[in-house]
Structure formats: C-alpha cells, structure tokens
UniProtKB/TrEMBL annotation:
It holds the Pfam family WG_beta_rep. The lineage of its organism: Bacteria, Bacillati, Actinomycetota, Actinomycetes, Micromonosporales. It comes from the Bacteria. Signal peptide: none annotated. It comes from Verrucosispora sioxanthis. This is WG repeat-containing protein. InterPro entries: TPR-like_helical_dom_sf, TPR_rpt, WG_beta_rep. Residues 1-35 are annotated as: Disordered.
Length: 462
C-alpha cells in the first residue's frame, strides 16, 4: 500500500485505535472524517444557475468546522493544501465567498510548493470555481485552462472541462460551454453516469438560454483564454517559394525571404537564407538577432536553444549566442523546467549550466503515461521512464532512481507506476517504487481501476 504520509489520496488505517480497544468495553465510534463526509456529499445542481446546492446547510457548516479542526494539526504542505481547498469548497457552497477565496488562494500556494501536478490542479480548479461564483471569470477561465494537463487522470480532466463549461455558461459563451461539455463526455461519458446526468442538465440549461439570447461569441482557443500572444507562424510565398511569417489573419508580417523557417519560441525563430547552409536568429519584427552561424538549430525553450556549429556536436546557447552548455552531445531534447534530456555515450540529462544531473548511461528515455500519451523527456512532476538494456525504470530530474530498470514495460500514473513482470502481467508500484498492486492483470486499464478503488478521492470534490 502507499504510505499515508505520502498523502497520495489513499485512505489511512488506524491500527493503534483498534489495539487500544478492550474486550470489556468497545472503543467508541470515532466521528466520521470530514473529508470523507464531504466526498460523499451529493450536491443538487440547480438547473438554471448550474450551481451546487445542499438540502442541509448546517451539516455542511459542521463539516467545515471539522476541516478547520484538522487544519490545526496539519503541518505539511500537502495536508494544508488539501484541507484548505476543501474548506474553500464548503465555504463556496455556503456562499461565504470571501472566506472561500482566501482559503482557495492559500491552498494553491501550498499545493504549488509540493511540486505535485495533480495536487496543484485540484487547488487551481477549486479556486477557479470560487472565482466563477464571484463573477471573476477571466481568472477562473485561466485557472481551468492551466489545470487541464494531459498528464492528469481522465476523470479529473473531464471534471475540469465540465466546470469550465459552467463558467462559460455564466458568461453567455454557450458554444464554448458546449465544447467543454462535449470534451468531458469524450473523456468519461461512457464510464460515469453521474457526469452524464450533470452534462445533460448543463446542455438543457444552454439550450434554454440560447433560445432567449443566442449562443454568444465564437469559442476561444486555449491561447486566447490564457492570454498568450498569438505569434506569427511560418508561411510560404507561392510566387518565389520562400518562407516568411504570417499573423492570425494570414497577412505576412515578416517578408518571405528564407529557404527554411522554424516556428517562433520565446519570441525568437531560427531561419536559413537561400544562399547559406547556416541558420540565423530573428525576432518578431524580423530583425536579425544572430547572424548565420549554425549548421543546425532547434527552437528555444526555457530561454535556451540547442545548436550545432561544427563537428563538436550539440551545445546550448542563450538569446545573445552565449554558450550555456558546452558542446559534446550527439542528440538532445528541449529544456523544460531547467533540465534537458541529452545523448552522449548513452542517454541522460543536463541542467542549464551543462552539469550532468542524470548519468548518460541509459539506452533511451521513453516516457509514456497510463492513458497512452507520450512525454518528450520528463513529466511536469519531473519523472521520466528510462531504458537500460530493454528494462524500464524511473528517474527524477535530480537524477535519483525511483524505480530500478527491471521491468519490461512501465507507465507513469498520476499517483503510481504501472509495470509488468517477466511474464507480461501488469501491476503497480507506489511513488517510492515499492509494491502497491501485485502483477496479476493482463491489461494496464485493469490496474488503473484497482488504483481508483484504493484512492480516497477517486472522484475529487470540486
């Protein structure tokens, strides 16, 4: 089992309490844990406002009080993040929105300090829901978008889309709301009857409102929600066959004068003129930042780009051309959160100064998530699946080996690792690499279902 101190979402047991009971006098029933009570709450969804309501507000106030009591003894970031964000949920439904906002913001601070993607996403979603009720839609939309990572379980991603849909509904963005509802159903509709009922209620509300005032503005992209600048994209001039850059409307904003042009990253793009085999660097205005210098170049990420100048191999430079990581690598991957996967004699990883943080001893980095998505290098939480002589293990971005390379196949799950034994059967390891579920299943999906059964918050309260 997972260690309860790891706060993975799996329920803890109280063996000591059982040991203290005597044959003559049974131990009194402990009061129900407020987190479990809140998880069992069945909210009613108002068919017009699409907001949760409760039949007995006093019961929810009691739950909030007991969450406050638990907070008094919670010292670690994980526990405080969880308890504060759950208290924010209770306060929101009780319409104490100032208290809910304060708890939601503090919970997100603690959650981000843990570095755990799932925990941060839950805190973001709960805070976003409070902001939606307060009518602060821009920040709520942004938080829902930031939280929705492909590295999260489908169940949580579906819930995020559902709540983002309700936020769009409040704003009269009814087409966008429909798109989010549709995505939630794509992720979990066939497996979650309660989600299906809520989405039906939401779509009925959308249809009623659309009859009164139409479907509202055209849906926004994630970039628009996150207020990211829509940088120009490479575009070809049909006349001369050269490349330039066009804006969102298709107008050329950087003249077509290049034989090759890469996408802009960090406001910079590598281009190659028709009269040279060397790549130069331009900014968004089309001005040359670095003269033609490199035989090969890859887009910027984390402020650094990998380039090749001569036979010495790949090295990393900053936007001024200064060398940040010395040459000597046969292959490289983009920097992400200060670390990049590289190949020398084998595969490993370096930090932004060129220090080897994961020894270059592995035959490959092949990080695959439990839902089948592939990650180029490390996950958001800093985990990667490595290959050593055909056996898979897990390392983190500091170089620590979490799971020794001993498994024919291994997938990263949000709270565990799915792995096969020599017979090809699937089981699970916890995040410390210790056995969680014995390898007895023929398909990883069956193991995921077993993990869901162990999780105390498989259906997290948002």
């Amino acid at each position: 089992m997972l260690d309860p101190s790891a706060d993975s979402g799996l329920p803890a047991t109280d063996e000591q309490g059982a040991a203290d009971a005597t044959d003559d006098e049974p131990a009194p029933e402990p009061p129900a844990d407020p987190e479990q009570v809140l998880a069992r709450f069945r909210w009613r969804l108002d068919p017009v406002t699409l907001r949760e309501t409760v039949d007995d507000p006093e019961e929810l106030r009691e739950v909030r009080e007991r969450l406050t009591e638990k907070l008094a003894s919670a010292l670690d970031n994980r526990s405080r993040a969880r308890l504060l964000s759950l208290r924010a949920v209770a306060s929101r439904v009780l319409n104490d929105l100032d208290d809910a906002l304060a708890d939601g913001r503090m919970a997100l601070t603690y959650a981000e300090a843990t570095g755990e993607l799932r925990r941060a996403a839950l805190a973001q979603a709960r805070l976003a829901h409070v902001l939606r009720w307060r009518g602060e839609f821009a920040e709520a939309d942004r938080l829902f978008a930031e939280a929705n990572s492909i590295e999260l379980p489908d169940r949580l991603r579906a819930a995020l889309h559902e709540h983002a849909a309700r936020c769009c509904y409040d704003q009269g963005r009814l087409i966008e709301a429909c798109h989010h509802f549709e995505r939630a159903l794509d992720l979990r509709g066939e497996q979650d009857a309660e989600l299906l009922d809520r989405v039906r209620t939401g779509l009925d509300a959308v249809a009623s409102r659309a009859e009164e005032g139409g479907f509202g503005p055209y849906p926004r992209s994630w970039d628009e929600v996150l207020e990211r600048d829509r940088t120009p994209v490479p575009a070809r001039d049909g006349g001369q066959g050269l490349w330039g850059y066009a804006d969102a409307e298709g107008d050329m904003v950087v003249a077509a004068r290049y034989a090759e042009a890469q996408p802009f990253r960090d406001g910079l793009a590598w281009v190659r003129g028709p009269q040279t085999d060397r790549w130069s660097l331009i900014n968004l205005a089309g001005e040359t930042v670095l003269e033609p210098t490199y035989l090969a170049a890859r887009p910027f990420s984390d402020g650094l780009a990998w380039v090749v100048r001569d036979e010495s191999g790949w090295h990393a430079v900053d936007a001024t051309g200064a060398v940040a990581v010395p040459p000597g690598f046969a292959d490289v991957r983009p920097f992400h959160k200060g670390v990049a996967v590289v190949r020398r004699e084998g595969w490993g990883a370096v930090d932004r100064t060129g220090r080897i943080v994961v020894p270059t001893r592995y035959h490959g980095f092949h990080t695959t998530l439990a839902d089948g998505h592939h990650v180029d290098g490390f996950t958001e939480e800093g985990l990667a699946v490595v290959d050593l002589a055909g056996r898979k293990g897990v390392v983190d971005r500091s170089g620590q080996v979490i799971v020794a390379p001993a498994h024919p196949a291994l997938l990263i799950h949000p709270v565990a690792f799915l792995a096969t034994n020599s017979a090809g059967n699937w089981g699970a390891l916890d995040r410390r690499g210790e056995s969680l579920i014995d390898p007895m299943f023929h398909h990883p999906g069956a193991v995921v279902a077993e993990i869901d059964g162990l999780l105390a918050d498989a259906n997290p309260v948002l």
